[in-house]
Specification:
alpha/beta, 6-stranded mixed β-sheet, 384 residues, globular, single chain
Length: 384
């Protein structure tokens, strides 16, 4: 019997994770039976060092760039598009919709840019719009996929604007024609993870992305009158507080402290040493719990962390429940196949790394209007 799968194209995706100090990357292959296979990883990815042969492959691969939350942010806000009286009784054309969206984006951009610059801790002039999309169209209280050809005076919609630093924008615009090809996709970590969690869990969704050395980021995705909204906040706590507590108490190097904590979190230390670790680490965790309480979080809080929290920490914290990212649901509900033993990360981190790929996978059949918007990113925010 002939296996016709052998003759089908196997799509490849290069995912590049942009951090503050370096860019890591990995290459995925998606087989026809929806198995996601990891082919290669890079701890430090440098464009200047890739070969000509590799560059030729890029023309065939899908390239997904995901930025750390400290380098990019997505702001979601409702907009109202109001047509002029002399057009309102006629079907909405694509050209008129494009003009209405351009006007709406320009109207809110100054406000959004200011908010993003504060979130990213940079000057407004260095805060660049790198992606925007519109969704959740509503006409006369009825949802529509695309408002073109409808008659209406007012149109409700949700606008998503992703902004990043000028450095990130300049680095990537020289390598790709941003927005003009379906083979390139830019996102930021929180948006990608919230998007994937939304496919698996009911709203509202709480996500906490821990940072090792800076403030951690809290995001909440919830329903709004039209579509959904993302609320963001910062938790003034980082996971290096745990490692620092061990370093100071035992007078050891960071590497040794990290190793000891790994043994402790896996419950491989003696009962006496475990009790000592419990005592020295509880004060390091208290600030995190206080900040979580101040945010008045309710329900499940999904944790994106490369460092597990201490085992003594209860999953139930007030009205909140601390949960790992749901790897099993990713497999069972979405129908993908993943051999986790062939990935270099724990299962909850596989979820994190695959989120940008799956956001792209499900958004690939986007509205034509969004492709138009991305092609014209240069008209807002990129002027030196």
């Amino acid at each position: 019997m002939i296996d016709f799968h052998l003759f089908q194209n196997k799509e490849k995706y290069l995912i590049l994770e942009v951090g503050e100090k370096s860019t890591s990357g990995f290459l995925l292959r998606l087989d026809p039976d929806k198995e996601i296979i990891l082919e290669k990883t890079w701890s430090n990815f440098f464009w200047t060092k890739i070969s000509r042969r590799f560059r030729r492959h890029l023309e065939k691969w899908k390239v997904i760039v995901v930025a750390n939350p400290s380098l990019a942010t997505t702001i979601v806000l409702p907009i109202k598009l109001e047509r002029e009286d002399n057009f309102a009784k006629s079907p909405l054309s694509s050209i008129e919709l494009e003009n209405l969206l351009a006007q709406a984006t320009a109207k809110v951009f100054t406000q959004v840019r200011g908010e993003a610059s504060r979130d990213l801790g940079i000057e407004e002039l260095d805060t660049i719009l790198i992606d925007n999309r519109v969704c959740n169209f509503k006409i006369d209280c009825h949802h529509v996929m695309n408002p073109v050809d409808f008659r209406a005076k007012k149109i409700d919609a949700v606008l998503e604007l992703t902004l990043t630093t000028r450095t990130i924008f300049d680095d990537w615009k020289t390598n790709f024609s941003i927005g003009e090809t379906k083979n390139f996709f830019f996102t930021e970590a929180a948006r990608a993870e919230l998007f994937l969690l939304k496919k698996l869990k009911p709203l509202p969704i709480n996500l906490l992305i821990f940072n090792s050395r800076q403030n951690s980021q809290f995001s909440k995705l919830e329903k709004a009158a039209v579509g959904e909204l993302i609320h963001r906040g910062k938790i003034k706590w980082a996971t290096n507080s745990i490692i620092n507590a061990i370093e100071q108490d035992l007078s050891v190097s960071p590497a040794v402290a990290q190793k000891l904590y790994s043994l402790y979190s896996q419950k491989k230390l003696s009962p006496r040493i475990t009790r000592h670790f419990n005592l020295i680490l509880k004060p390091a965790i208290v600030p995190f719990l206080k900040h979580l309480e101040e945010l008045k979080v309710r329900g499940a809080v999904y944790l994106d962390t490369s460092l597990p929290l201490p085992p003594f920490l209860s999953h139930k914290q007030g009205h909140a429940t601390l949960e790992n990212l749901p790897f099993d649901d990713l497999i069972n509900k979405l129908g993908f196949k993943i051999d986790s033993s062939k990935y270099p990360w724990p299962e909850n981190q596989i979820f994190k790394h695959l989120a940008p790929f799956l956001e792209f996978y499900y958004n690939n059949e986007d509205l034509a209007i969004n492709h138009w918007l991305r092609r014209r990113l240069h008209w807002l925010g990129s002027v030196r």
